[in-house]
């Protein structure tokens, strides 16, 4: 887990160009660039040219992985899919990078997925007992096995996907390329977003967020429904709705932190949702202060909302160095702490001798928060009142967010006054669960708030270690096998 912030596992993109004349690899590259915030460990692109699939993927950021002629080597094609990955632990090999490519008797397939399965361990053991060999510890490989197994008897790739979906429990928004088709799938609970767009008359695109469409000049068409499978091929696009019917439960943290503020998810603006969160915070936790500041980046919109609702002036309290790498990968705590100071710097002109309201999106372990508060104190802040635009994290997430244990959560260890003392603030206030469920005004979905409440849309394992493939098989599964 990163020093403080939460991370969502990945972002996906897919494009189908009926003409086969456009630079689908270049458009996928631009879309992944727009989705880079969803994953910085690995990225990859697969281009499909009349059934010939070419792949390039590696560890690193999009512009680094696709430098030195990589896009040109991918060439032209009718279909391309792309993926960016965040991993809860450092990725040591490019083999874990997606899109994942598999070749079997019915032809090649490429797959990129966003989310996590709660029954991945069970499915993996089932596959291994039937002779399957795994090369990674990713859910994507489990999913690819389930689809290819069904494909052996299914009349088409989309039927194979349709048959496999009921066996997959959890979050899985994904894009799949067969030799002639692009398929987009959203899990029946709708945990992670997946949208469809269009470029002119010949190109259909899918992405985890609508900001990817803006980067390539695509027009948003609609969000996929929970459980929907959309197939695009030379005949056009069609929808398979066998598994539709549930109201979606989008992870509410998509609005609080994960998504880019210029994205629209399920009809609700992320930017406006964060401002509403800040306004609710001002009503729930008012305080006498001189200035409201936000912690970059996702705390900024919430700070604006807090300032507008409270009437306290908004100010720029921090400057963020955009050229610093991610702090959690540094080898020692001392180096991580030093990088916090390099990455963020307090603006003394804004906070000196002031009573400051500092708005952030979340607090996980509290270590980085304490160092940020120290920056404000060193810059002369007289008081620091922290306001968090989400409820306290009290439970693990099983659907793609890197909270795997209560042990790391400060809210599970300490009371609110104790958190305030440990982080060095004069007061602290979290957004309530009822209000966080109201921030996405106009959204066409419900929300998963399990990490705050412990109530999940589906049954979850009793425990989930960091490497879920090491966890014991649930008793219910063992009993079924007997």
From TrEMBL:
Keywords: 4Fe-4S, Glutamine amidotransferase, Glycosyltransferase, Iron, Iron-sulfur, Magnesium, Metal-binding, Purine biosynthesis, Transferase. InterPro entries: GATase_2_dom (IPR017932), Ntn_hydrolases_N (IPR029055), PRTase-like (IPR029057), PRTase_dom (IPR000836), PurF (IPR005854), PurF_N (IPR035584). Mg(2+) binds at residues 298, 360-361. Its EC number is 2.4.2.14. It comes from the Bacteria. Pfam families: GATase_7, Pribosyltran. GO terms for biological process: 'de novo' IMP biosynthetic process; purine nucleobase biosynthetic process. It catalyses: 5-phospho-beta-D-ribosylamine + L-glutamate + diphosphate = 5-phospho-alpha-D-ribose 1-diphosphate + L-glutamine + H2O. Its cofactor is [4Fe-4S] cluster; Mg(2+). Binds 1 [4Fe-4S] cluster per subunit. Binds 1 Mg(2+) ion per subunit. [4Fe-4S] cluster binds at residues 251, 397, 448, 451. Catalyzes the formation of phosphoribosylamine from phosphoribosylpyrophosphate (PRPP) and glutamine. In the C-terminal section; belongs to the purine/pyrimidine phosphoribosyltransferase family. HAMAP family: PurF (MF_01931). This is Amidophosphoribosyltransferase. It comes from Harryflintia acetispora.
């Amino acid at each position: 887990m990163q020093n403080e912030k939460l991370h969502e596992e990945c972002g996906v993109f897919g494009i189908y160009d009926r003409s086969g004349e456009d630079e689908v690899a270049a458009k996928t590259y631009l879309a992944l660039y727009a989705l880079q915030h969803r994953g910085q460990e690995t990225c990859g692109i697969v281009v499909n040219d009349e059934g010939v699939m070419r792949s390039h993927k590696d560890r690193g950021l999009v512009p680094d992985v696709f430098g030195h002629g990589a896009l040109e080597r991918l060439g032209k094609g009718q279909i391309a899919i792309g993926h960016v990955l965040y991993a809860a632990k450092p990725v040591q090999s490019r083999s874990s990078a997606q899109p994942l490519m598999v070749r079997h008797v019915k032809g090649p397939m490429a797959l990129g997925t966003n989310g996590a399965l709660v029954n991945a361990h069970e499915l993996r053991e089932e596959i291994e007992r039937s002779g399957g060999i795994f090369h990674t510890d990713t859910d994507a490989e489990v999913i690819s096995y389930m689809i290819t197994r069904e494909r052996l008897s299914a009349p088409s790739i989309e039927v194979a996907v349709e048959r496999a979906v009921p066996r997959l429990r959890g979050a899985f928004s994904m894009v799949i390329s067969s030799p002639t088709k692009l398929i987009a799938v959203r899990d029946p609970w709708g945990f992670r977003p997946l949208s469809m767009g269009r470029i002119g008359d010949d190109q259909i695109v899918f992405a985890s967020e609508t900001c990817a469409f803006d980067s390539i000049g695509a027009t948003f068409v609609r969000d996929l429904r929970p459980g929907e499978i959309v197939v695009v091929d030379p005949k056009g696009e069609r929808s398979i709705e066998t598994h539709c019917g549930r109201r979606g439960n989008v992870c509410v943290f998509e609005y609080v932190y994960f998504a880019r503020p210029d994205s629209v998810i399920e009809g609700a603006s992320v930017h406006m949702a964060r401002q509403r969160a800040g306004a609710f915070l001002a009503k729930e936790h008012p305080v006498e202060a001189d200035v409201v500041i936000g912690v970059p980046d996702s705390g900024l919109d919430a700070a604006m909302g807090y300032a507008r609702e409270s009437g306290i002036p908004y100010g720029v309290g921090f400057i963020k160095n955009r050229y610093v790498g991610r702090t959690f990968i540094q080898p020692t705590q001392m180096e991580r702490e030093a990088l916090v100071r390099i990455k963020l710097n307090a603006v003394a002109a804004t906070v000196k001798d002031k009573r400051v309201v500092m708005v952030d999106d979340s607090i996980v372990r509290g270590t980085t928060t304490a160092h940020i508060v120290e920056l404000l104190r060193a810059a002369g802040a007289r008081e620091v009142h922290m306001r968090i635009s989400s409820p306290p994290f009290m439970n693990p997430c099983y659907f793609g967010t890197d909270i795997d244990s209560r042990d790391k959560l400060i809210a599970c260890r300490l009371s609110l006054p104790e958190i305030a003392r440990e982080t060095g603030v004069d007061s602290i206030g979290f957004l309530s669960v009822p209000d966080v469920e109201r921030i996405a005004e106009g959204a066409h979905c419900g929300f998963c708030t399990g990490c705050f409440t412990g109530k999940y849309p589906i049954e979850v394992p009793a425990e989930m270690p960091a490497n879920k493939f090491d966890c014991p098989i649930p008793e219910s599964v063992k009993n079924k096998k007997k």
